[in-house]
Amino acid sequence: MPVTKDLLGLLACPVDKGPLLYDAERDALYNPRLRRRYPIVDGIPYLLADQAETVGSSDHLRILARTTPDGVNDVPARH
């Protein structure tokens, strides 16, 4: 289930409390400042620090390149 920009406006990283980006390709929420990705499982964001995975440089650049200014990734989610 894609995340809307309205929902993104309500969600925050549990570690630095900053805004998140939506990575539709991975169906996850992403914090570019900490390079941490939070999974979305069955439409539910798992915003737990111990559930996040660290993102490498190539994935970081891919996410930023495909994210629109409103924080939503422009690639449809894989099903």
End-to-end C-alpha gap: 9 Å
CATH topology grouping: N-terminal domain of TfIIb
The CATH C-level name is: Mainly Beta
Question: What structural category do the secondary elements indicate?
Answer: alpha+beta
Strand content: 15-25%
Q: How many distinct domains?
A: 1
Q: Ranges with pLDDT <50 over ≥5 residues?
A: none
Tally of contiguous helical segments: 2
**H/E element sequence:** HEEEEEH
Compile the SSE list and pairings.
Blueprint: H1 5-10, E1 21-23, E2 28-31, E3 36-41, E4 44-45, E5 53-54, H2 57-65
Antiparallel strand pairs: 1-2, 2-3, 3-4, 3-5
Describe this structure in words.
This protein has 79 residues and is α+β, with helices and mostly antiparallel strands. It has one domain: N-terminal domain of TfIIb, CATH 2.20.25. The chain is built from 2 helices and 5 strands. Strands 1, 2, 3, 4 and 5 form a 5-stranded antiparallel beta sheet that branches. A hairpin with a 2-residue loop joins β3 and β4. It is globular. The chain starts with a helix and ends in a 14-residue tail after the last helix. 27% of the residues are buried. The model has no long low-confidence stretch (mean pLDDT 87).
Label this structure with key terms:
single chain; 19% helix; alpha+beta; 79 residues
Describe the structure concisely.
By secondary structure, the protein is α+β, with helices and mostly antiparallel strands. The protein has two helices and five strands, in the order H-E-E-E-E-E-H. The longest helix is centred in the last third of the chain and has 9 residues.
